[in-house]
Amino acid sequence: MNIKKQRLLTAGPTPLYPKALQAMMGADLHHRTQDFREIVLSCIAGLKSALGTTSDALILTASGTGAMEASVTNCFSPGDRVIVCSAGKFGERWLEMTKAYGLDVVALTAPYGSHVAVEELEKALAANPGVRGVFVQASESSTGAAHDVKAMGLAIKATNPDALFVIDAITGIGTMPLDIDAWGLDLVVGGSQKAFMIPPGLAFLFVSPKAWARMETAKLPRYYFDLRREQKNAVKGESSWTPATSLILGLAEVLKYIETFGPGKQGMDKLVENAQHLAAATRLAATTLGLELFAPSLPSAAVTAILAPKGMSSGVIVKEYRQKFGSIINDGQGEMKGKIFRVAHLGYFDVVDLFGIIAQLELILDANGFPVKLGTGVAAVQKYYAEKVVGSKQTVTA
Q1: CB-count exposure of residue 19 (10 Å: 0-12, 13-18, 19+)
Q2: What number is the average pLDDT over the span 324-345?
Q3: Distance between CA atoms of residues 174 and 275, nearest Å
Q4: From CA 335, how far away is CA 327, in angstroms rounded?
C-alpha cells in the first residue's frame, strides 16, 4: 500500500475541526475593529457558557503554560506558602514555576501513574492553616491519570476558604466534569490545542471573584500577563497586546460546534462524554489484548497510557505507528520514556478513529512477536460501542 494519511493521535496538538481551519483563513481581519471585537466577545461568552461558569474568561496569546504562569504572578506574593500536588511531568511544572517565583512550596507528590489522594491534601491543609493556594493538574496527560478535583475543591472550601484553588485543566476541559463555581475552582487554565480542536497558541483562564480580590494585594511582578489590564480590555472585545487573530476566528467556530451538541454546558458535557467513552473502550481493548494500563486507579479520559509488553520498548510501538501507518502517538515522558505509549481521546476524535488505532496496535504487536489474535481488540471496542453508546443488544464476538 503506497498511500498513508498522517493521523494525529496525540493529546496535543489534536486533530483540527475542519470549519475552524477554514475560518482561520480569514485572518486578514484587523484586531482593532468592531468586527473583530464582536468575535472576541462572542468567544468569551461562549467559553463561559461551555464551562457553565460565572467566572470571568480571558483569552491569552500564549501556550497553556503562559496562563499557568499568569495565575502565579497575578495572585501571589514572594514567600506565600502554597501546596502543590504533583504526580507527573506537568505537576512538576507547577513545582518548578512556584519555586521560581519565590513561593514557599509544600510539595505533595505521588508516583507516576498514580495521583495525590484527597486525604493527603486534607492533612497538608490542616498542617498549614495559612496556606495561600493549592495547585493541581485536573488531568495529568504525561501518565494518563487524573485528580479528584471536586473532592479537593470541597476540602479546600471546608478547611481554608481563603486559599485559591488553581487548576491546570489544559487536558481536563472537554474530558472530565468541571463545575467551576460549585467546586470552588478559582483559576482554571485551558489551551487551544487540546479539546478545543485548533492549533497551539491560545491559553484560556477562568478567574473567580476571589482570585480578582487577591490580585489587589499580590506583589509578584507581571507585565505581559497582567490579568487586570487584560480584563479591562476584554470587556471591550480587545486584548492588551496583538492577539492571535486566526486562532480566535477558529475558536469561534469550535464554540459554535460544541453548542450544536446542546445549549450551554450541555454541549461541553457531550464532548466530555465522547472522550470518556473513547477512553473506556481503549482501556477495555488494551486489557483484552493482554496489555497493562499504567494508571488504572483514577484514569484520565484525555489520554490512555499503556505499558509496553515486557521486552519491547514503547519507542518501537510509537515508531511503527508512524512508519507503517502514518499515525502519530506519544511515547512516555521523562522516566517513563520507552516504557509507556499514550493514545489521546480529547476533542475531534470519534469511534472510527479508535477502530483504526486498535487495529494498528494489533498488527504492531503481532509483528513484534507479542501473542495477539487479530481482531480481538477491535471486537472489544465494537462490543463497548454497541452496548454503551448505541444500546444494541447484539453480541459481538472476536
Answers
A1: middle
A2: 96
A3: 7
A4: 24
Give the DSSP H or E segment for 293: strand 292-293
The single-letter DSSP state of residue 396 is P
Q: Which H or E element spans position 340?
A: strand 340-344
Upper half-sphere CA count for residue 381 (Cβ side, 13 Å) = 22
Determine if the peptide bond prior to 13 is cis (ω within 30°). yes
Q: What is the pTM of this model?
A: 0.96
* HSE toward the beta carbon, residue 217, CA cutoff 13 A: 6
CA-based end-to-end distance of the chain = 26
What are the beta bridge partners of residue 134?
A: 83, 165
| Per-position DSSP letters for 195-218, written without gaps between them | TT-S-S-EEEEEE-HHHHHHHTT-
- Domains in the chain, please, with CATH? 7-13+264-389 (3.90.1150.10), 18-260 (3.40.640.10)
CA dist., res. 23 & res. 251, Å (int): 9
pLDDT class for 391, splitting at 50, 70, 90?
confident
